[in-house]
Task: structure prediction
Amino acid sequence: MEGSVLDDEVSWYEDEWDWEGPDEPAITYREAITQLQGLIHTQKRTDVRIDWETGARGPQGDARIVFTDGGAERKLRFGSSSQLNDFTRIITSAVLLEDHHALWYLDRQLITARLIGDYDQLHTAVLRTLAPKLRNPTFIRDSPLGRDVDGILGSYGAFNAVEHTALPRPGSRTICVRSASQDLRMLYGPRSQAIPSIAIELAGFAAADTGAARQVLLDYGTSYLFELAKGTGISLRLWRSEYRLGSRKPLPLSGRTKFPQLRYDAEPAELYAAGNSADRDPIEQYLKYYQVLEFYMPKAADLVAKNEGAAKVGKAHSPLRPPPDNELRFEPNRLDAVISLALTPAQVASLLSDNDLFGSLSNPRVVKDVQALTALAGYPDPSTDYLLQISQRVYGIRTRIVHMKEGGSSQSPNLLTPYGREARDLAADLRLIRFLAEHAMRHWARPIS
Result:
């Protein structure tokens, strides 16, 4: 009997309630855009607009949601009405800090920003907190511990730092690292959840406007990431959206490997290999190639002094630059000696015939406060001694890299930082100095007997 009663109850339940129900009419693309336009107006969002080409891509048109932050813009294509809820959430709650790929939620006193850097280090460090007794822990995403790491980063975050105040109070300011939110992914990518994206989250920080929120992110975010690096070894940093101005071509590779005929010096060969390492930032690569040239300075200076008939190297002079201060006891003049011996003007002319390369090397805005190559109507000037200008540029960049004292140097007040715009704009100069390093090694190589 009990079974029959249960059957009656289930039957009654299904008769009275249609759980699936009829499908609600889907909102149209045009209706979704109209709703967002009204929302922007009611929220008084002067930093958001919709560019809508009603005649493009068929009858629905083609819309772009444009977020502005000062002179920067973030344009997102509105692909379908299914995106309405996501854009509604962002427009009603978040303000973009575009130059750092960050969002500021005023009402929640929350700032979150994408981080770039070594995600593998982060995952391994979180794994180490879960299993401190594991030797050489390896993060494997599709494993029990790997899923635990993803769960921690996706929920309450890792390496939480809480502000300690004299009087305990609710809502203390906190900072942590965690998986990037859906809003960050939608605005800045990657969209796929399968691709990791890490963010810093600053909670409980009051700010009066976007300028103050940006300063909070820079001050507290930078300091927190330094403390994180110091305590855990994790290398993460805030996004910097300064646009590159110069060449984006990678270092040229022939793809061929010849049978060895020359014996190259082992030490510069090791430095050259280190310069090729993709794990190094552009500044590190540059210095490694420069060290190849530096290795040959004593040999080059001795040879130039011998050719001049000078009794001592210090009494000899640069083969490229006129006096004063052109004695070979100075490093810039020894670099002149290396370049003058390793390259011919014809080889330099062939290199600079690459318009993309020459355009960057002759543009004084790409790398500031160093020698820009002289151009004639945008092209190399046949009457210019480019060997000297190249030597001056190479040494100028080297000096800007190694002299990182506050306030800069007498040659430049600007610091060439590892992840700044100028460092990311070193592509052309890396091609140049790699070319010089290869020719220097070849010049002093000897046949293998």
User: Anything to note?
Assistant: The longest helix spans residues 210-232. DSSP finds 16 helices and 14 strands in the chain. Residues 57 and 402 are 53 Å apart (CA to CA). The longest strand covers residues 62-69.
